[in-house]
From TrEMBL:
This is Phosphoribosylaminoimidazole-succinocarboxamide synthase. It is an enzyme of class 6 (ligase). It comes from Ferrithrix thermotolerans DSM 19514. One of its GO terms (biological process) is 'de novo' IMP biosynthetic process. PANTHER family: PHOSPHORIBOSYLAMINOIMIDAZOLE-SUCCINOCARBOXAMIDE SYNTHASE. GO terms for cellular component: cytoplasm. Keywords: ATP-binding, Ligase, Nucleotide-binding, Purine biosynthesis. Residues 6-254 form the SAICAR synthetase/ADE2 N-terminal domain.
C-alpha cells in the first residue's frame, strides 16, 4: 500500500506500509525555474534524472555514505500497484533525517556567482582575484551553501551563518564532503569531455551517520558544459536547466506570476540535452534505459496552481 508523503517541484515520494524504513521516489517530467513549476513537462526528463543520479551513486560507491537508491523493475512496480509509466523513474531509498541546507559548490564563474563577482568581486562572500571573466575557472572550488525553503527562494548563507544554524562541526562536515564529491565528479566528467561548473548536494542522517541523499549531479542540480565549447569571456554551450532559464529571460519573465507557455523547441532542446548528458557520462544509449523512450510526459501528483 502506497501513501503519498511529499510532493516536491520534480519528485513525488511515497511510504510503503510494508517497509517504513524506505521511501519510494518517483522522478516526474516536471521542470521548474526561479522556484516555479512550469505547466508543461519535458519528455524523458524524470527517467534521465534517475539514470544520471544512479550513475553517480555507483561512481561514488564506497567513498562515502549514501542513500543507496535501488531502481524498481516491472516486478517491483507490479508488487506496489504501479504501472509501466513508472518504469525507469522510480527508486527505493533509505529514509533519512534531512539537513535543511542546499550544499552548493562552484568551480567556475556562471549564473548568480558571475553576477556577484561583477558587483562585489566575490563568490559567496569569498574574495576573488580581479580579471576573471564569464566562464572562468576559479582558483579553487568554493562552498556557497543556501537555505532549503519549502516554498519560495532559497537564501544564501555565509559560512558563519551556516555554523550558527547547524553548528560548527556539521557545517565543516558539509563543506568537506561537498568539496570532496565535487572533486571526484570533476575527475570523472573530465574523462568524458564534460565540465561541471557548479552543483548542489543534499545530505541527511541515516542510522546516525551523515549521508549523501536526493539527486546527485543531475542536469537539474548542476551546470554541465562540454569542454570544447569553453572560451574566456563567454558562457559555454549549456546541457542543463540553464537552457530553460535563458529562454525564460528572453521572454522577460522573472519568476513573478504565471510562467509563459514553453515553446516546443525549448522543450525538445531540454529533452535532447538531458539525454546527451546521460549518454556522454555512461557511454550507453538512453533508448536502452527502462521505460518507453517516446512515452508522453508524466507530471505526477503536483497540481500546477496556474492550471484552470
Amino acid at each position: 500500500m502506497l501513501e503519498l508523503k511529499n510532493t516536491g517541484k520534480v519528485r513525488d515520494s511515497y511510504v510503503v506500509s510494508s517497509d517504513p524504513s524506505r521511501l519510494v521516489v518517483v522522478a516526474t517530467d516536471r521542470i521548474s525555474a526561479y522556484d516555479v513549476v512550469m505547466t508543461e513537462g519535458v519528455p524523458r526528463k524524470g527517467r534521465v534524472l534517475t539514470a544520471v543520479s544512479l550513475f553517480w551513486f555507483d561512481a561514488l560507491k564506497g567513498k562515502l555514505a549514501t542513500q543507496t537508491p535501488v531502481l524498481f523493475d516491472k516486478v517491483d512496480l507490479d508488487a506496489i500497484g504501479l504501472h509501466d509509466e513508472f518504469l525507469g523513474r522510480t527508486t527505493s531509498v533509505r529514509r533519512a533525517e534531512m539537513v535543511p541546507i542546499e550544499c552548493v559548490v562552484r568551480g567556475y564563474l556562471a549564473g548568480s556567482a558571475w553576477k556577484e563577482y561583477l558587483r562585489y568581486q566575490s563568490v559567496g562572500d569569498i574574495a576573488m582575484r580581479s580579471g576573471l571573466m564569464l566562464g572562468s575557472k576559479l582558483d579553487r572550488p568554493v562552498f556557497t551553501p543556501t537555505t532549503k525553503e519549502a516554498e519560495g527562494h532559497d537564501l544564501p548563507l555565509s559560512l558563519s551563518q551556516l555554523r550558527a544554524r547547524v553548528g560548527t562541526s556539521l557545517a565543516c562536515e558539509l563543506e568537506e564532503i561537498s568539496l570532496f564529491v565535487y572533486g571526484e565528479a570533476m575527475r570523472v566528467a573530465a574523462d568524458k569531455g564534460l565540465v561541471i561548473a557548479d552543483t548542489k548536494f543534499e545530505f541527511g542522517y541515516i542510522d546516525g551517520k551523515l549521508a549523501l541523499c536526493d539527486e546527485v549531479l543531475t542536469p537539474d542540480s548542476s551546470r554541465y558544459w562540454r569542454v570544447e565549447s569553453m572560451g574566456l569571456g563567454r558562457e559555454p554551450v549549456q546541457l542543463d536547466k540553464q537552457i530553460l532559464r535563458d529562454w525564460l529571460s528572453e521572454t522577460g519573465w522573472n519568476g513573478a506570476g504565471r510562467p509563459p507557455t514553453l515553446d516546443a523547441k525549448v522543450i525538445e532542446k531540454l529533452s535532447l540535452s538531458y539525454v546527451a548528458i546521460y549518454e556522454t557520462l555512461s557511454g550507453l544509449s538512453f533508448t536502452d534505459w527502462p521505460g518507453n523512450y517516446d512515452l508522453r510526459c508524466y507530471l505526477g501528483e503536483r497540481t500546477n496552481k496556474y492550471e484552470s
